[in-house]
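Re-running the complex after MR caught last week's input typo. The corrected sequence lines follow. Everything else is unchanged.
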Amino acid sequence: MESAVIVENLTKNYGDVLALDHISFEVKHGEIFGLLGPNGAGKTTTIKILTGLTKPTSGRAIVAGFDVIKQPNEVKKRIGWIAAEVIVDDDLTAWENLELQAKLEGLNDWKDRASELLKYFGIYEFKDKQVGKFSTGMRKKLEISMALLHSPEVIFMDEPTIGLDVSTRKALWDIIRQINKDFGVSVLLTTHYMEEADMLCERIAIINKGKIIALGSPAELKEKYGTDVIEIDYEGKTDQKKLEKFGEVIVYNGKIRIKTNNAENIIADVLKQLSDLKIKAVRINKTSLDTVFLTLTGTTLEEGEFDARRFYMTIRRARR
Ligand SMILES: Nc1ncnc2c1ncn2[C@@H]1O[C@H](COP(=O)(O)OP(=O)(O)OP(=O)(O)O)[C@@H](O)[C@H]1O
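Corrected-run output:
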């Protein structure tokens, strides 16, 4: 069977900005697939192309068996989309939101399905309550109900847990896993949270500056690119050369980073070498997707291009 999503050499220019640079990947049927990368990497642009909101400059994409450029309406019938910002209408009840969604989708027989979804998510008894009074978790459940109303084959989620507290985020991971299993829906989500990609996605593509720089299951990527990283905050002057016998060393901004396969075994010797420095903090980061990203790009996701201003704008939008 053809994959749920096929992306071939997708490229997108916004004027001089090359937002996507020949990316290719496939999402298999029934898979939870993640696009992981910092702000500005091209994640939203990818989702916008796959949901028909914008056209690629070149390349090809097939979603649920249809070409997103040539058959956008066929694609739209078969996909659900959950944006980073909350899309429910606070002034309406949950049921009215579903009714509006049904109208937008041109659905006639939607009421049984809507009841079934609200029951599935445990919010049926609140169906006639105004959504403005819902908790964040309940709103997310309603949003997902709306996205599932027309029984899509593929769901796109752009930064689904941005701005959520840790427990709501984890609850949402469970929901995403459940709908994937119970409704057989394939999921393509974007995230800049390493842990989210690691915990939730069967396979991920790491995207940076418009390019896919690695693709595989979290375990495969850790195996291939992962290392332990010793991180030392210091004051004083250090000689990088002295440390190179321990592994690959990066020194910048008052931080030393050493990539190694056996952090615990060498840490004492490393600190001995640095006895003339004022050591402020020492951390050992075991292999994780964060160290995979560091190996591939020389920077961590947080340091990368995480844009706090845009992040808080998104949260403000979500809270409105
Ligand atoms: N409408 C637009 N006009 C011009 N440039 C754009 C437009 N949309 C995105 N870009 C640029 O394209 C690049 C990729 O942006 P995109 O939004 O896809 O990244 P992202 O990984 O989703 O990050 P974010 O989480 O910040 O949305 C960035 O350099 C961005 O500034």
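None of the earlier attempt is carried over here. Residues 14, 17, 19, 37, 39-45, 310 surround adenosine-5'-triphosphate (CB under 6 Å). The domain at 227-286 is CATH 3.30.70 (Alpha-Beta Plaits).
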